[in-house]
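Chapter review. Work through the record for Universal stress protein before attempting the end-of-chapter questions.
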Amino acid sequence: MKAVYATDLSAASDAAIETDTCLECLDRIGVDTLHLVTVVPANVHAGTPGIDHEKRRRRALRRYRETIEAGGLEVESHVVRGTPHRRINGIAETVGANLTIVGSRGKRPLENRLIGSTTRNLARTTVVPLLVTRVERQTDDPALLEGQLFRRVLYATDFSENAERAFEAFSYLRHATREATLVHVETPNSRQPASDGAPDERLAELATRLESWDVDATVDVREGDPADEILTAEAEYEPTTTLLGSRGQSRLRRLLLGSVSESVVANALGNVFLVPPERTA
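Structure tokens for Universal stress protein:
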């Protein structure tokens, strides 16, 4: 598997790339090549008096390369200019990546929007699964909040086609997953037809599949606001990563990402693994 690792060469990027457990988790799920992508925004000038930005980029990328290769993965570097999320998506398509990874600082007090514009735009436009890794805030030497990326997974589903596609990610995540909690949130407008089976029964079927892969699985059916309940479940179960599809049952254009997915990506305490719909011709 190939993964695009978007980095701005900041201390937060250092924390993610130089965490051994993070690289080990990627290796376990089948990632053998990392494409490091640094995007220089088009409105940023090439130089600043007294600072050699190009030299700093080369030095940081060389250090990342040495760390990643020491972890047993191959690595290629790309330094490009343009709009970050567009260039990252473009490179992911060009190299045939199976996954894009981007870091995001943890929560800021008194904020509703807790992720940067690049992460948010990637979540809305990515054509491959997107892993958002959480990094500590308000420290000069940040660390990943959870380096064991996929050890404990919270999977949220509304039983939509895209949610089923997200579940299929367990086909490779299972090699690094020991526990999974499967959550469905019922709302008055989301009751499933009786012919589809009760939610707890459908979750139990998924749990049986995971247990056949030696993943301990539990199910949890809740009622209320989906985003709020998923975030509450995350706080209760303390997963290392929350897994969900980027588009639910709504077909409204304004919910392309889906209000639920957007809220989870923005407000989750830990890592989030977002799976987009399958591309159509």
